[in-house]
Fold this protein.
Amino acid sequence: MERTPLIVGNWKMNGTITQTLLLINELLQMAQNLKDIDIVVAPPFTSLYSASIALQDSAIGLAAQNMFWEHEGAYTGEISGDFLKDIGCTYVLIGHSERRQYFGETDESVNKKIQMALGLELIPIFCLGETEAQREKKQTFDVIQEQLKIGLKNLHMNDFKNFVIAYEPIWAIGTGKNATSEQVEEVHSFIRNTLEKSFDAPMANGIRILYGGSVKPKNARELKQTKNVDGLLVGGASLKADQFIEIIKC
Ligand code: PEP
């Protein structure tokens, strides 16, 4: 099955509105003639609305980096998926390892957020991955299996029509350490096989599985050859328009 490649830029906690708009304008110019690829950017919450206006009528999609699992109410500091829809987001990152590491997100809270996003027709980019210690103890597959089992609890086949999974080994995020193409392929095919067992083959073959972790133009070129890699989630390198575009062009 043909899966359109998807490249997502996670800008993390970087960029005022002015800086976000400058970067978006550079990307819009450089990405003008790119075809057969989906590009999405995830600026910080405060820039989302301005970014949404700047990206209107463009081929670049907009993601938030997080959301809460309720529609509204007494949840000081939180942002609901309804608000994200309201300002034109189509995607939302859920369960990024930095959220799990610094803000106490668990597989259970990730599952609640995924269910809420799907109910609102926001496309979840469900992030998962193992720590370095877990990899060293050869627990990678057990960890991924558990994250999938709990993260996807109560989901039905229809929920996966618009759904993205991002495998991000925590030891490779922002560290400059690269997972090899073999390590990535091993986990991506494990994820696809697990989905096939839990759901069915057409569903598993249709879903896009991205890789994230210190992606730069050089390893993007290598990862392109990897059978089960359908795109990339790029952090640091997506903050420089020329690097991000070089990765996209790969
Ligand atoms: C990320 O933020 O999801 C990420 C992969 O970051 P980096 O590319 O900087 O490792």
About this structure: The chain has a mean pLDDT of 96. The first strand starts at residue 6 and ends at 10. The pocket of phosphoenolpyruvate is lined by residues 10, 12, 168, 173-174, 212-215, 233-237 (CB under 6 Å). The chain has one domain: 6-249.
